[in-house]
Amino acid sequence: MHEYKLIILSPGGVGKSALNVQFVQGIFVEKYDPMIEDSYRKQVEVDAQQCMLAILDTAGTEQFIARRDLYMRNGQGFALVYSITAQSTFNDLKDLREQILPVKDTDDVPVIIVGLEDERVVGKEQGQNLARQWNNCAFLDSSTKSKINVNGIFYNLVVGPWEAGTT
After folding, report:
1. Distance between CA atoms of 31 and 147, rounded to whole angstroms?
2. HSE of 128 in the Cβ direction (CA atoms, 13 Å)?
3. pLDDT tens digit string along 75-128?
4. Is residue 39 one of the residues assigned to a domain?
5. Residue 56 β-bridge partners
6. Furthest C-alpha separation in the chain
7. pLDDT (tens digit per residue) in 30-69
8. Neighbours of 87 (CB within 10 A)
9. Which range of residues forms the domain containing residue 40?
10. Concatenated DSSP letters for the chain?
11. Could you tell me which InterPro entries the record lists for this protein (predicted)?
């Protein structure tokens, strides 16, 4: 069985951990400790093949920053998550990507941009345009509460390559 190491990155407070819990356990978590770095495993079927997803839910606290290069080096796919209710979290995605590229030593890194939450402030077009700028990486809007596109995020990281603007 093939194992995929997926790294989920975001600015604080956008709902990244709730996304992971919804995908792995099928439940919506309202409150989560942002100081926790956690990992999850889930067996899934992709293209009629069983595979194991090893998902790292990163924390931005100082104690975990030293390990950042190691987990980025080992990551095989990256979900960059922002809140569609906060433009600043969308703007932070560029910094997150700039942390990945030097460690991976290539621009050809499997990345999906994920707009999360329900009350839109950041336009869908902004996410789609950014995905096109970044070598046509994938883009999805998602809601952990409504269970919209939760599975699609993780499957897109495994299946790739993707079409720009995938919804």
Report:
1. 17
2. 8
3. 999 999 999 999 999 999 999 999 899 988 888 889 999 999 766 778 889 999
4. yes
5. 7, 39
6. 41
7. 776 666 678 899 999 988 899 999 999 887 555 556 677 8
8. 14
9. 2-160
10. -EEEEEEEE-STTSSHHHHHHHHHHS---S---TT--EEEEEEEEETTEEEEEEEEE---SHHHHTTHHHHHHH-SEEEEEEETT-HHHHHTHHHHHHHHHHHHTSS---EEEEEESSS--S-HHHHHHHHHHTTT-EEEEEBTTTTBSHHHHHHHHHH----TT--
11. P-loop_NTPase, Small_GTP-bd, Small_GTPase, Small_GTPase_Ras-type
Domain count, the chain: 1
Quick one: tokens of 136? Answer: 């046509």
Q: Which two tokens stand for residue 48?
A: 């009629």
What are the tens digits of pLDDT across the range 133-162? 998 788 998 988 888 999 999 988 888 644
Compute, in degrees rounded to 10, the torsion defined by CA atoms 32, 70, 1, 152. Answer: 50
